[in-house]
Amino acid sequence: MRAVACLVLAAGESSRFKSATPKPLHQMAGRMLLDHVLDTLAELQPQRITVVVGVAREQVTKAVGNRAEIAVQEKPLGTGHAVDCARELYQGFDGDILVTCADIPLVRAATLQELLAEHRRQAAAGTMLTTKMPDPSGYGRVVRDASGLVREVVEHKDADAQTQQIAEINAGIFCFRAAELFEALEHLEADNVQGEYYLPDTLKYFRAKEMPVAACLAEDPDEVMGINDRVQLATAERICRDRIRQRLMQAGVTMIDPASTYVDTQVSIGADTVIRPGTQLLGNSSIGSGCLIGGHVLIENSTIGDGCLVRHCSSVTDSRVENEVEIGPFANIRNNSLIKSQAVIGQAEVNRTEIGEGSKSRHFSYLGDTVVGAGVNIGAGTVTCNWDGREHHHTVIEDGAFIGSDTILVAPVRIGRGAYTGAGSVIPSDVPAAALGVARARQRIIERWAERTGKAKD
């Protein structure tokens, strides 16, 4: 079987985005457009992938990383010229080159596989991916001959009434035999208003030389939509998220209102998990099986174990939650925190903190830079004072400790195993194991105070 290489055109100016960010680096469902394209091409297991960069080449090259080699288009002289800029990299390559664009992120790997297969079945010099549009007005029509090969592509303005009835259009993705591609590129002419060299013109060269030109029809036109502005980006985002939600629901996830549930590309969710409306599951997140994720929850770059309950209006970011944990409502867990199995975190903020197995902090607490052991009870209103204005300090609460309500733990401080703190205490020093730490003034009663101060109520 002939070798396959992939070429991604990512050198355009993307002026219609009106953005300092290059178009290939704009986000769709939590990944850059370029990421989506490279991920899809990797499924083909090509011998090599090349990205042609031009405008903002440093940013795009950095985003590519080690996933592809780079070719540079110094001047924006059209798609044909962009491909030709990779010529030196393909010296001696005897195979097929699939050419796509960084702004066509929705095409599926299976569709590209079919394009390659049709290219080889027809022994074509070049093969175009096509689709049928409900309204093809403005697009070039693909005219086939009796054998199904491409006879010509007729621009809308040049099409007669019969040709305008054709719904099949060029989708902008191609497959070429390498030698024939670079031969055709040598004969391109920039005889157009823009003075550019267009890649589709290679097909005219092939036909003139009586080399076969084939076409492969993509059944879903959404796959080949290009993204040229933010309106089209929003449309592509909706399509991409619909695909993600459908895939997850078919795998056993319940979404009460799919349209209001936002799930990024890299998120995984186990079977029998229920997602309530308004929830966002973002980044590189994983949610186990049998969970209930409440409404208006945010989970980002985090792992949630099996059998967890995350109540409404809670957030978990850059953190890990083990199995059978209860969180929320209105909890905020962030910054590499770890919540171990069967712990309960209520209306609390947890920041750079580890909560031990079976420990509970149900009500209105802040735990920052803290290690909490197993079986600890943290009373309502507890605060760890971890920041002194210059540095963060750590608090340790050992197994089985009981922290009374409204305790202020002034870090650095350690509460020993099985120790207690009295409600309303400010604890600036360590409390030994099994001891009681109390730090509050004795209560005083001042008789007739309201009467003497004039604050008595009639």
**Care to count the β-strands?**
39
Helical segment count = 9
Tally of domains:
2
Summarize the amount of helix as a percent range: 10-25%
Question: Which fold does the CATH topology of the largest domain refer to?
Answer: Spore Coat Polysaccharide Biosynthesis Protein SpsA, Chain A
Going by helix content, strand content and strand pairing, the class is alpha/beta
| Overall CATH class of the largest domain | Alpha Beta
Termini Cα gap: 98 Å
Q: Architecture of the largest domain, according to CATH?
A: Alpha-Beta Complex
Largest sheet: 16 strands, parallel
Rg calc: 31 Å
Q: What is the CATH homologous superfamily assignment of the largest domain?
A: Spore Coat Polysaccharide Biosynthesis Protein SpsA, Chain A
List the helices and strands and how they pair.
Layout: E1 3-10, E2 27-28, E3 31-32, H1 33-42, E4 48-53, H2 57-64, E5 69-72, H3 79-84, E6 95-101, H4 109-121, E7 126-132, E8 141-144, E9 150-154, H5 161-164, E10 168-177, H6 178-185, H7 201-208, E11 213-218, H8 230-250, E12 254-255, E13 262-263, E14 268-269, E15 274-275, E16 280-282, E17 286-287, E18 292-293, E19 298-300, E20 303-304, E21 309-310, E22 315-317, E23 320-321, E24 326-327, E25 332-334, E26 338-339, E27 344-351, E28 354-355, E29 360-368, E30 370-372, E31 377-378, E32 383-385, E33 395-397, E34 402-403, E35 408-410, E36 413-415, E37 420-421, E38 426-427, E39 436-437, H9 449-452
Parallel strand pairs: 1-4, 1-6, 4-5, 7-11, 12-15, 13-16, 14-17, 15-18, 16-19, 17-20, 18-21, 19-22, 20-23, 21-24, 22-25, 23-26, 24-27, 25-27, 26-28, 27-29, 28-30, 29-31, 30-33, 31-34, 32-35, 33-36, 34-37, 35-38, 37-39
Antiparallel strand pairs: 2-3, 6-10, 7-10, 8-9
